[in-house]
Amino acid sequence: MELTIKNLSKTYPNGVKALDNVSLTIPQGMFGLLGPNGAGKSSLMRTIATLQEPDSGSIHLDAIDALHDKMALRRVLGYLPQEFGVYPRVSAEDLLDHMAVVKGIVNRNERRETVKALLEQTNLYEVRKRSISTFSGGMKQRFGIAQALIGEPLLIIVDEPTAGLDPGERNRFYNLLSEIGENIIVILSTHIVDDVRELCRNMAIINQGRVLYAGQPQAAMRELQGRIWERTIEKAELAEYQREYDVISTKLLAGQPLLHVRGQQLEAAGFQAVEPSLEDVFFSAIQGQAAQSTLLPA
Ligand code: ADP
After folding, report:
1. How many CB atoms lie within 10 A of CB 147?
2. For burial by CB atoms within 10 Å, which of 13, 68, 187, 231 has the most?
3. Is the CB of 37 under 6 A from ligand 1?
4. Which residues form the ABC transporter domain (predicted)?
């Protein structure tokens, strides 16, 4: 099974080009769509989920033409949107049951089994009688996964799922996502590099509506081998270093700026070679795009 996206573009009525000729092939397993806020991730997720129309391009899940046969795609789709909106004051069990009816599971016994299995899988069975409005962020996200799993989907889309979760909740959510299995396609849209590093076998980096990298996280890190250097500097030196070097990120380490730069043989300048991280890959891709666009004629 494979999701094939070809030449997808979308410009909103206000002139923002949210998707700029996006082409991606997404295989089975967990796929990370990584990009900063405003990159176009939600626009892409909503388009794949058949909730909005692109201006041009195509999306196929194997033989299903998602843009022309929306119902066929929806039958095999599970979607966990960024915002669920307001939760009604009903119990988790009742809401899941209702959603199963909407998804077409009309047989009462089958539905009872499905709802019970999903509540157990997402570790919400103990709290099934509680209203979702009383759930923590992590519990709400696990409920979101439970409803996305109704009807054994082949494609699951989760949009920014770990934003706002504390570390414990995030771990539980990670474990749940990785259990969902390698036999379906799970697309995880996020601006959090750790989400992708810990969970995804394949990924794409997007920014300003464009795909900057598509491939395996490990391969991306290998490509940067020997080219990432770091050193701490004084705060007052920051501007000078940014002029002199190809700085891809600046972090404070105990109050002192720690720079990561791209380059070759920078020992003499006091830098140390580092093993490239996925964060370096991410910042390097985005920095490369920024550098390129300043070179392009206006
Ligand atoms: P992300 O999910 O990566 O944060 P989005 O897809 O939400 O990115 O947004 C991409 C760009 O499109 C942003 O500049 C955003 O402000 C803009 N945008 C998103 N939705 C709309 C809309 N409905 N109308 C106009 N602009 C939009």
Report:
1. 21
2. 187
3. yes
4. 3-233
